[in-house]
Structures are given as C-alpha cells and as structure tokens.
C-alpha cells in the first residue's frame, strides 16, 4: 500500500513501523484492524495467491 512516514506514532495495533507508516494524513497502519490490514497487505495478497496455487494440485 502507498503511504508516508509520519512525524509521530499513531495507533495501538500492529508492530514495527505500523504506528509511523501513514496511509493518509491522520491514519497509520497501527490504526487499522488486522482484517483491514490484510485487505491491503502485500503479504496477505501473496499468501492468497500461494494458497490458490497449492489448492490446484
């Protein structure tokens, strides 16, 4: 997902850089629920594709 590094940490959810990785002017990744993060996460998208490929076999 696109975003920018914020000046102050915001939010309580997540880990690592989530509190300072801003997805808009007042929302960091740490403000999102796990479900919301998984909808935009490159890792979640990659896992979905892997599961789909493995289920074909």
Automatic annotation (TrEMBL):
The EC number(s) this enzyme carries: 3.6.1.-
Pfam families named in the record: Ham1p_like (PF01725)
UniProt keywords, alphabetically: Hydrolase
InterPro entries recorded: ITPase-like_fam (IPR029001), RdgB/HAM1 (IPR002637)
A GO molecular function held by the record: nucleoside triphosphate diphosphatase activity
Entry's Gene Ontology cellular component terms: cytosol
Spans traversing the lipid bilayer: none
BP GO annotations: nucleoside triphosphate catabolic process
Similarity-based family: Belongs to the HAM1 NTPase family.
Record-given protein name: Ham1-like protein
Source organism of the structure: human gut metagenome
